[in-house]
Amino acid sequence: MNISIDLKQLQRDGKITPVEFYRLTHLAEHSTSTLALNILLAYGVLSAAGVALVLSPTSITTIITGLLVLFAGGTSLASGLSQWQLFSNICILVGALMAGIGIITAF
Prior knowledge:
mainly alpha, 4 helices, about 80% helix, about 0% strand, elongated
């Protein structure tokens, strides 16, 4: 569960102490950096999928690439690491779309 709160405002209002402010800020750093990394990786997957769709000479290449991305996302999701859940879901979505587009264009 994610919660957004303004720690600086809470400290100014006297609702949390400076020690609590530091502790909560330190705890949030890991989550923020993980989210930023997942977003960057997601843009990389989307751009690679776009390039693969544009440059792939046949529908079979698109299908195989889509299935590989889908498999990588599924494997990553099955590992159970919560910090990779967003990235895994994006890989599954992009892989399924690529494979579907390849199948539609093949027939």
